[in-house]
Amino acid sequence: MKEKKKRLEELLSKPDLNPEEMKKYGIEYARIEEIENLVKKIEEHQEFIELLKEEGNELEIEKYESELDKLFQELFLLLSPQTGDKAIVEIRPGTGGEEAALFARDLFRMYIRYAERKGWSVEIAESHETDLGGFKEIIFFVKGKNAYSTLRYESGVHRVQRVPVTESGGRIHTSTATVAVLPEIEEREIEIKPEELKIETFRASGHGGQYVNKTESAVRITHIPTGIVVSCQNERSQYQNKQTALRILRARLYQLQKEKMERELSRKRKSQIGTGERSEKIRTYNFPQNRVTDHRINYTSYRLQEILDGDLDEIVSKLIEHDIENNLDEILGTKTVDEEK
């Protein structure tokens, strides 16, 4: 990191540097400085804990060790190759009918509680409920420090094993729900040409198909070149729904572009953490055994209810740490700087 910082200093001192390059290198330089400051804090905490151990002050040791864990998680997030403070989360039921829709609702509640713990803001973009209160689909924006960096590990298929409320015989069923986490993309990062869009308007409908307004405020946007369709009806005006739909569309187009580029360059990461693809089973929530298992890192916790109540920090920390261990070359490499040189 120190070597990379020196190279960035050299690049930033070049007189012919354009504004885009200056911004890119400046962001990376600031990130390295933040990492250095965190490492210093961690070392200070470790030294202080050693002193407290000599004094035998157990309460203070516990307090500082808890703070140390938080500092390490912050460091892991900064080292993570994909960072960002804005995420778009999409949850849809998979196999299991009504029970899968109810599980989708449980996952949404879990992420809402997690966002509250983190001090992140949540904005619902689109939702469709079932008769029993589950979700056919829910899309929401999350904004806050490291929101995307943290939540991106949730992408994939989540599986639940429990006795559904719809089951009269008391048998355990297995159902699934799919989570997709995309980074929210700025308008200037993805160009969407107006002629590539087919925009339709329709009346927003409420629960059970009841019309909730008499004007055509709901919007459906089709991106003609890719066939991606995004609809939004949660906002009050047609303009607001259109802007929300475009935010989601930009994120999906960016993801499509990113996946295509990675395939073309044959450098898609194949670490054990998984690719985050929607078809990949990543986690099982087993109610009879009070167990949550993350299959990517063979991690099991017997704190199912706490996790569903939004206590995800322990799992997330282990996923980030594992990701870093398997991608050290990419994280510590000087690919971007060297390419520019």
CATH topology tier name of the largest domain: Alpha-Beta Plaits
Secondary structure tally: strands: 11
H/E topology pattern: HHHEHEEHEEEEEHEEEHHHH
Major β-sheet annotation: 8 strands, mixed
Gyration radius, rounded: 23 Å
Taking strands numbered 1, 2, ... along the chain, how are they ordered across the largest sheet? 2-3-1-5-4-9-10-11
Q: Low-confidence runs (pLDDT<50, min 5 residues)?
A: 207-214, 266-278, 334-341
> How many domain units?
3
CATH architecture of the largest domain: 2-Layer Sandwich
Structural class: alpha+beta
Q: In percent, how much strand structure appears in the residues?
A: 15-25%
Name the shape in a single word.
flat
Distance between the termini: 17 Å
Broad CATH class of the largest domain:
Alpha Beta
- Helix count? 10
Average pLDDT taken over every residue: 83
Percent of residues in helical segments? 40-55%
